[in-house]
Amino acid sequence: MGKTKRGKGTKLVAVADRTGLPIAVHTASASPHEITLVKDTLAERHVAAQPTRLIGDRAYDSDRLDAELAAERIDLIAPHRVNRSKAKTQDGRALRRHVRRWRIERLFAWLQNFRRVLTRWEYHVTNYLGFVHLGCIRILLRNYF
Predict the structure, then answer these.
(1) What is the CA radius of gyration of the chain?
(2) Which tens digits make up the pLDDT trace of 72-124?
(3) 112, 14 Cβ separation under 8 angstroms
(4) Dihedral class, residue 20 (left if φ above 0, else alpha if ψ from -120 to 50, else beta)
(5) Is 5 helix (H, G, I), strand (E, B) or coil?
(6) Which sign, positive or negative, has the C-alpha torsion 114, 117, 120, 126?
(7) Burial (CB count within 10 angstroms: exposed 0-12, middle 13-18, buried 19+), residue 38
(8) What SS3 string covers 69-104?
(9) CA–CA distance from 145 to each of 47, 110, 136, 141, 142 (Å)?
């Protein structure tokens, strides 16, 4: 498929704290899978402390990602995909925390209130990321003051 026919776009990956406030935001091309963007997103966090748990959706069900994050003492909580061929690694106790994933969805809903973040009008991704950071700053200021 030619370059003009395949999908274009920007993927916005974020990490939020337990209240839904942004900790890290990363932008990338829309073509790579989410599990390849986790390390870059954690590297761009705004706080010094590393998260102890990451809650993701079914797309984050990867044994390789789980092993990489376990080496950094981060617990990955993601439900298993339906077509998983290997043995299950998550038990029901950890998956009960998956119901709190709505907080990251709320962060994305807050970011979608800003028109410059909702639709990427900028040609350069650094300009778009700047507007995403401004949106995050506004969210933080609204919740702290």
Answers:
(1) 16
(2) 999 888 877 777 777 666 666 667 777 778 888 899 999 999 988 888 888 88
(3) no
(4) left
(5) coil
(6) positive
(7) buried
(8) HHHCCCEEECCCCCCCCCCCCCCHHHHHHHHHHHHH
(9) 19, 17, 14, 6, 6
Q: How far is CA 126 from CA 26, 98, 120, 122, 131, in A?
A: 10, 32, 11, 9, 9
Least Cα distance to 132 among 61, 118, 58, 63 occurs for 118
The pLDDT of residue 18: 86
Matching residue, tokens 């507007």 = 131
The residue ranking higher by pLDDT, 84 or 23, is: 23
Q: What type of residue sits at position 111?
A: L
